[in-house]
Write a structure and sequence with these properties.
PH-domain like, 566 residues, single chain, globular, 3 domains, alpha+beta
């Protein structure tokens, strides 16, 4: 491995191991991706045939990509990537969670040129820079076999600063004008980190298969925990490989670097740069070949699946019955001793915060309705267009300032969720809390959208309310009452669904890690009963996971029913 004018700290033997590990991971992923694609295609076709049988909401769901109003706009200071100067820029957060920035608000208002678009797929947010930068420095010192005091001093940043951080991509340092602005902007940046889409593929089957293959590849490498990743397919696959190299080899390589601290850091950074380039050079053609292979696979099997979906479904049910009969003696003791007794404790952590958070979310909706009532009263009706009224409503569920109280209620889960690590060591409380916030925002967005659609219909049937303040106010009050009732029903549904999802995410990785080594020998013979025409379409391990999810889901549903009905 060439590292410029410096002696490489990577031995020939280590380089061989790096290449072998890259090859092993790519081979494993290729196999898992191909299997997952066939399974995902079967599931996709099954769901197509069951259209209209999904979750039944009383509120209306907003169509994807229908929003055009920015989620947030305003000025921030941004640190430059090269000279590290702080520059004032006008930021616009788009509904697709991409972030544009301009040299000024004037240029934005005139439809001028975007200075840069930031995609935060796979990034994480650091709002306590002093603490987080010190922790990273200490971790790096340990990895390199150095005293933390020998490292260059940790950089200091102005008040009200934060970072959008990624281990192997450019990091973004921002500064707001005050603490409240920092909190609001940081919340929006966090949304962008979690929701920005980076996949190049628009095929839902390919996306589902890719995500499943990443999970299965990590499990083959011995990792059962959740893994935060994001970006394009090649970026994620490269991150997977470099992350594994980091855990298995880089510490030893870094400790081979000798010399003064500054020189060692320079060589370390060069090693990582060369390694990233080498990994991406291997991943790019490999993934292109995978895409070609799965496209050929789809052309070959899609017609078969569509023509034989009922026999495939029947074969899967028969196989799942065989699996359940074969593994119950192994799984039931683990479930009854290590999982089921802890479910009630998990849901107790969730109930009060989610109940209180939805109450706060309803307060947000009511507040927006009161504001609208006052507006139409003062302006004597809605006017000729509803659009100005809707633009503010549309942003409400994504407005951190308005949602602050609801989100703070959810934060009460954090400490007790962390305490569960003594039993479930792969738990990720931060992700679970973020998903709770997403649940609140989703139901509020549905309430807002439902109100807007109902109001459009009301204006169509009663055009006089455009210019009659009293009638317009009465219309808002009537529709608000209707939407609030629907909100209550759907909030309960969404809360129960969240309880179930959280408990599945906590329990399933733990359970799979424990029972997979015990059940693999039992499952192997069942492969022989898969009908020969369906060998590519039915996977024993996938069906085993489905059986396990059914057993765990049944236990979870019993606990939820017991707790929510009492």
């Amino acid at each position: 491995m060439g590292v410029g004018p410096f002696a490489s700290p990577v031995s020939d033997e280590q380089m061989t191991k790096i290449k072998e590990l890259m090859e092993t991971i790519l081979k494993t992923f290729t196999l898992e991706y191909t299997k997952a694609y066939a399974i995902a295609l079967v599931k996709h076709i099954e769901e197509e045939l069951k259209q209209g049988k999904g979750e039944e909401w009383q509120l209306m769901e907003r169509p994807e990509d229908s929003l055009t109003t920015p989620l947030k706009t305003g000025y921030l200071m941004k640190q430059g990537s090269v000279r590290k100067k702080w520059l004032r820029r006008f930021f616009v957060v788009r509904p697709n969670f991409k972030i544009d920035y301009y040299e000024s608000e004037e240029i934005y208002n005139k439809g001028g040129k975007v200075k840069k678009t930031i995609s935060l797929c796979g990034y994480s947010l650091s709002t306590d820079l002093a603490k987080d930068l010190l922790a990273r420095a200490q971790e790096l010192a340990a990895k390199m076999g150095m005293d933390a005091g020998d490292l260059p001093a940790v950089a200091t940043y102005p008040d009200f600063s934060w970072e959008a951080h990624h281990e192997r991509r450019r990091c973004y340092f921002m500064q707001a004008e005050n603490d409240q602005e920092k909190e609001e902007w940081a919340r929006v940046f966090d949304l962008c980190c979690r929701h920005c889409e980076g996949f190049n593929s628009t095929d839902p089957v390919a996306v589902a298969a890719f995500e499943k293959a990443i999970t299965k590849t990590r499990q083959e490498l011995g990792h059962w925990d959740s893994w935060t990743c994001g970006g394009s397919e090649t970026q994620i696959l490269s991150d997977l490989i470099v992350d594994e190299l980091d855990q298995t080899m880089l510490g030893e390589i870094f400790q081979n670097i000798k010399g003064p601290a500054g020189l060692r850091m320079t060589i370390k950074n060069k090693v990582l740069q060369v390694l990233d380039t080498m990994v991406m050079a291997a991943v790019t053609p490999a993934y292109k070949a995978m895409e070609t292979a799965v496209n050929a696979l789809r052309s070959r099997i899609e017609g078969v699946i569509r023509s034989k979906i009922e026999p495939i479904f029947q074969a899967k049910e028969k196989i799942k019955e065989k699996i359940q009969n074969a593994v119950l003696k192994t799984i039931n003791p683990v479930l009854s001793e290590k999982v089921t007794p802890r479910l009630a404790g998990i849901i107790e952590i969730l109930i009060s915060p989610m109940t209180d958070a939805f109450k706060e979310t309803r307060v947000v909706f009511d507040g927006q309705m009161v504001h609208l009532e006052r507006t139409v009263r003062e302006r004597n009706g809605f006017g000729e267009s509803l659009a100005p009224h809707f633009s503010g409503l549309d942003c409400t569920p994504r407005n951190p300032s308005l949602m602050r109280n609801a989100f703070k209620r959810v934060d009460a889960m954090e400490a007790p969720l962390w305490a569960l690590q003594q039993f479930f060591d792969d738990i990720d409380p931060g992700t679970l809390i973020s998903e709770a916030n997403d649940t609140l925002s989703k139901i509020l967005d549905m309430a807002v959208y439902t109100f807007e659609k109902m109001l459009e219909q009301e204006v169509t049937t009663q055009p006089a309310i455009k210019s009659n303040g009293a009638a317009a106010e009465a219309a808002v009050q009537k529709l608000k009452s209707d939407v609030r009732q629907r909100f209550g029903v759907d909030a309960n549904k969404a809360t129960v669904a969240y309880y179930r999802e959280v408990m599945m995410k906590i329990v399933m990785p733990f359970l799979l890690k424990v029972v997979t080594p015990l059940t693999d020998p039992v499952l192997e013979p069942i492969n022989s009963i898969i009908p020969e025409p369906f060998q590519e379409l039915i996977n024993i391990k996938a069906e085993f996971e489905s059986v396990l999810e059914g057993l765990v889901g049944g236990a979870i549903d019993t606990v939820i029913e017991s707790v929510t009905s009492s």
